[in-house]
């Protein structure tokens, strides 16, 4: 509990520093957002690293006019899941 309070304070301090330097940081995404999508679609829960890969996919598909939206994040989750399944299938069919 104490470490989560410290982490929250660090995140808030980082947001304050970014905002003070001209960055818009009012809408931040979290790995829990990705996990929520997985839960809603009955998909396996992703690790923090996997969720960050989902954000990277969403960033690659970023639309400057629309920004990062919930449907775009959902699309990135499905893209990640397809890629993960393909890699697993390839590894099973051709073990190193």
Bin the helical content: 55-70%
Strand content: under 5%
Structural class, from helix and strand content? mainly alpha
Helix-strand pattern? HHHH
| Number of distinct helices | 4
List segments where confidence is low: pLDDT < 50 over at least 5 consecutive residues: none
Main beta sheet strand tally, sense and closure? none
Mean pLDDT over the full residue set: 91
Total number of strands: 0
- Report the principal-axis shape: globular
Question: What Rg do the Cα atoms give?
Answer: 17 Å
Q: How many angstroms separate the termini? A: 43 Å
Which structural traits does this protein have?
96 residues, mainly alpha, 4 helices, 69% helix
Write the layout of secondary structure elements.
Blueprint lengths: L1 H19 L10 H10 L7 H13 L9 H24 L3
Overall description:
- The chain has helices spanning 2-20, 31-40, 48-60, 70-93.
- The chain has a domain at 27-93.
- By secondary structure, the chain is an all-alpha fold.
- The N and C termini lie far apart (43 Å).
- The longest helix has 24 residues, at 70-93.
- The protein is built from 4 helices and no strands.
- The mean pLDDT is 91.
Q: What's a concise summary of this model?
A:
This protein is mainly α and 96 residues long. The protein has four helices and no strands.
């Amino acid at each position: 509990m104490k470490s989560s309070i410290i982490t929250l304070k660090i995140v808030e301090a980082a947001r304050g520093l970014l905002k003070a330097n001209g960055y818009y940081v009012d809408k931040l995404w979290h790995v829990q957002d990705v996990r929520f999508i997985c839960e809603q679609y009955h998909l396996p829960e992703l690790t923090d690293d996997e969720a960050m890969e989902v954000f990277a996919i969403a960033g690659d598909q970023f639309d400057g006019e629309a920004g990062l939206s919930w449907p775009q994040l959902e699309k990135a989750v499905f893209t990640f899941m397809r890629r993960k399944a393909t890699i697993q299938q390839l590894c099973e069919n051709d073990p190193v």
